[in-house]
Amino acid sequence: MEPRFNLLDSPTAAKASKRFYSASLALHESSLPRNLQELVSLRASQLNGCGWCVDIHTQEADALGETPQRLGLVAVWRHSTVFTEAERAALAFAEEATVLDGGKGVSDATWEGVRKHFDDDQLGTLVCVIGMINASNRMSLAVNMMGGTYERGMFDRLG
């Protein structure tokens, strides 16, 4: 399969992509640990089947010091021992906010779990990270972006 379309070839989509990238930089500056942002983005991308975004967030998490073991276990985090209670709460939240289960959204129990571990700013960041990765997944899947083509730093040209 080949990509169908390069969004950056469209002047309007290129402008929107640059702004989208700038918004992600603001999230990276928050107090929510960057590696957790990458793990959550990786999990949502796995659920959505977006190879392009799985590639991005695996590489970015690796660059932040995540181990191959933890990266490999993100898909089965419930059945592993390598994630903290706070990380597990964030991954559960990411799953429920990604797979909306017929409009039910996030359960009260999952919400309480993330509230227990994250302050208001971190929780707001987590909500935005999940919303943005889901939008990214959908855009990437619509134009058939392929995993294996991401090169670290390639988005720096957008800033």
Automatic annotation (TrEMBL):
It comes from Actinacidiphila rubida. GO terms for molecular function: peroxiredoxin activity. It comes from the Bacteria. Keywords: Oxidoreductase, Peroxidase. Residues 11-96 form the Carboxymuconolactone decarboxylase-like domain. InterPro entries: AhpD-like, AhpD_core, CMD-like. This is Alkylhydroperoxidase AhpD family core domain-containing protein.
